[in-house]
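does this look right to u?? FE3-S4 cluster version
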Amino acid sequence: MYLSREEESILQGEQGDTMRRMMEILVALGDIYGAERLMPVRSAQIAGVSFKNIGEAGLEWISDLRGRVAVPSILNPAGMDLERWREMGIDGDFAARQREVVRAYERLGITPDCTCTPYQIHRGIVKEGDHLAWSESSAVSYANSVIGARTNREGGPSALAAALVGKTPLYGYHLDENRRQTHVIVVDADLKGADYSALGFLVGRIVKDGVPLFRLRARPEKDELKALGAAMAASGSVALYFVEGVTPGPGSGSTSLGKDLGEEKGGKINQGIDKKIDKEIAEKIALGRKDINEVYDKFPAGDAEIVALGCPHCSRSELERIAGLLEGRNARKELWICTARRTAEACPDLVARIERSGAKVVCDTCMVVSPASERFRKMLVNSGKALAYIPGLCGVEAGFASTEDCIRVAEEE
Ligand code: F3S
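got this back:
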């Protein structure tokens, strides 16, 4: 990989040992994937925060680093609510180690926001066309697909290296040639809410690391796109998808797919160009209501002991909806609503309305990365990503239902 004089000098250790080690990571990655050169990034989002996942060895590695990040950088969810960890049933030893991890990152100049939805809380951390070094798979999918930015799914060390150096190797989803659809998914059903999670759960399994292009009947909301991408990233390893007429298109990263294809008024796509696109792709898959319903049927609520919403972290509008659904109701089961601390702090009234029902608004963490989930036998979720990860990563059985049904189940004794 080509290195500028300054990059070469960092590699020779002229800016200290930490920077040398970070540059070594970037060069190794670039060499493995055949990158031509390094590319400046606008921001970094760093995984490897939950002490449950990184343990003592990870904490030691991070604590050993010196320096300041070169670009705005924030963290993935931690293993607990950094303030209300006792209410989650987290023990004091874990809490102390977790706080040390966050402090070690903070010493490097990283903002201690622990969230998988950086785009919901920091305007300016990403915009269309930006190159990024983000780690968390749902955030990567959202940035690539909905915002039209460009990022690979970084590991914790490579995102941290990019944060400190301010650059990442130019390969993978940074390049036009890897941002073309591999499958067309035609969905002949009216979708709403958790249906998008179910759809993502199915499609991720089918396309694996492909780039699906969806033809949907109606325009999904942003939170529905967030859920769709998160589910595909977990049940498969999809890092980029398109929704015809909705998301930014392949190629330039600066025009909408609808415009690329000659979108007509009312969201219809020009049929001639439509056919041309079909010929170029590898596979066309049709899914309907029956397929979506099978996901709900296969993972029933059963005797779930806990209900957890907010994977990916809830937006303000999702908190609003949940507060409305919980009005005048009583959560008899443990009910967690996961969100970013900044999102919760921006709407204390909504948090109070939700918690009046007995639910807990849980910040900085989530049902998958916190060890607090492990004391339950079965968890009910409205997220395809949580559905895919909870059994393997938490050893907890998972059920799947719409948000309304999740709240109904949380009310039951
Ligand atoms: Fe976020 Fe945790 Fe889900 S990191 S996407 S809430 S698994």
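The longest strand covers residues 306-314. idk if thats expected tbh
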